Predict the 3D structure of the following.
Amino acid sequence: MHGLLTLRIIVLATVLPAIPLSAQDGKTLFTQHCAACHLPDRQLVGPSLVEVSKLYSAKIDEFLAWCKKPIQKRKGVIQMPPMGHVGDPNLKLIHAHILEASKGLKEIKVRGLDPFYASPSMRKRPQVQRLFMPEAGPAAIAVAVNDELHYCWDAGECRLRYIWKGDFIDGWAVWRGNGNGLAKIQGEVLLREEKNPVPYLDLVDSARPRPKFLGYSLVEGLPTFRWRAGKIEVTETIRPTSDGKALTRSFAVTGEIPSALKFKSSDKMSVSTESAVLDGNGRLTVTLTPKP
């Protein structure tokens, strides 16, 4: 009986008519199926909506045919996957949205940048990217804290490498080369850190142990890094201040707690203290502020 009931539900689900979609759903469908590769006014992975509109504004049948069976037209450009599964009624709604969204826009030519640079996923803030970065080891992690401040944290050495201000990264050299290349930072480096501010000498045998990365967790999109060396374990979190114009850097140390953490300012970024003692719980927070 249970199997028969299940079968009836499946059959009903396949024969009941679909709920009609409103015109507004064209935007939703576009966001779901197209927005990762197409921007309104510039080429991303695929052509802009301005270009698509010029090609297919009065050619709905050709638009449907192309969506269901696309071919590669441009050398070095990723071929669009077939979209026949979306269905003709939904593709027509997407077509209508493209025409509406591109009205009055002009094509903007962007050259020499990562084609994914302006995609919605790359513009998300905050953002964490695991990729090869300049002046860092192969286990680098790039973090876009907000629209202006970003940093590179090296999981191999378990320490901050540098902080920069501006846009985030151009990672095309890494992605195009399948890992054989370095990303480019888009901005000005404010601070480089030459060594870990947490001294991690093993006080038992006076030998410096190799730090071991223990991973990170995300809170509101920003990572808290964890690492261990000898008899100490450290967590470190870098977050924006309430106004977004500076960074706070918080440490929590357990085990063999060091007497103090050492920091250095630069000519472009000041640290609120050069040397600081951890509190009774092994915690400390410093502020890093860009200089005018």
In short: DSSP finds seven helices and 13 strands in the chain. Residues 252 and 283 are 4 Å apart (CA to CA). The chain has two domains: 18-101, 120-290.
